[in-house]
C-alpha cells in the first residue's frame, strides 16, 4: 500500500482489511496482484504485509491500520 501521509496509509490499510474481510472468496494472491497493478507511485508512505496464511495477513493489515509494529509488516 502507499499514501501521501501516514494517516492516509493507515486508512488505506483499514479499508483493505474491510474489503478482504467482506470477501473471503478473494484470495491473497488476487489481492496482491490487484494492488501491484493499481498502486499509485510517488507516494512517500508505504506499507507491506508479508505472510503465508490469511490470518497472518489480516493481523498484519490490522497492525498497519493501527500504526503498530508486527512481524511481517514493513513500513517506510
Overview of this structure, please?
It is a single chain. The chain has 76 residues and is α+β, with helices and mostly antiparallel strands. It is 54% helix and 13% strand. It has helices at 6-22, 28-38, 54-66, and strands at 2-3, 45-49, 73-75. The N and C termini lie close together (11 Å). It contains three helices and three strands. It has one domain (2-75): Alpha-Beta Plaits (2-Layer Sandwich). The mean pLDDT is 91. The protein has a three-stranded antiparallel sheet with strand order 1-2-3.
**What fraction strand?**
5-15%
N-to-C CA distance: 11 Å
CATH level 3 topology: Alpha-Beta Plaits
Number of helices: 3
Query: How helical, in percent, are the residues?
Result: 40-55%
H/E order of the elements?
EHHEHE
Q: What's the pLDDT, averaged over the residues?
A: 91
Spatial arrangement of strands, main beta sheet: 1-2-3
Main β-sheet description: 3 strands, antiparallel
Going by CATH, the architecture would be: 2-Layer Sandwich
As a whole number of angstroms, the C-alpha radius of gyration is 11 Å
Shape: globular
Kindly state the number of beta strands: 3
Low-confidence stretches: none
> How many structurally independent domains?
1
Report the structural category.
alpha+beta
CATH class: Alpha Beta
Summarize the structure.
The chain is of the alpha+beta class and 76 residues long.
Amino acid at each position: 500500500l502507499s499514501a501521501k501521509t501516514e494517516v492516509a496509509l493507515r486508512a488505506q490499510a483499514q479499508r483493505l482489511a474491510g474489503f478482504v474481510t467482506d470477501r473471503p472468496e478473494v484470495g491473497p494472491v488476487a489481492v496482491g496482484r490487484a494492488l501491484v497493478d493499481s498502486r499509485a507511485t510517488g507516494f512517500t508512505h508505504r506499507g507491506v504485509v508479508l505472510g503465508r496464511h490469511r490470518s497472518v495477513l489480516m493481523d498484519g493489515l490490522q497492525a498497519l491500520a493501527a500504526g503498530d509494529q508486527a512481524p511481517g509488516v514493513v513500513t517506510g
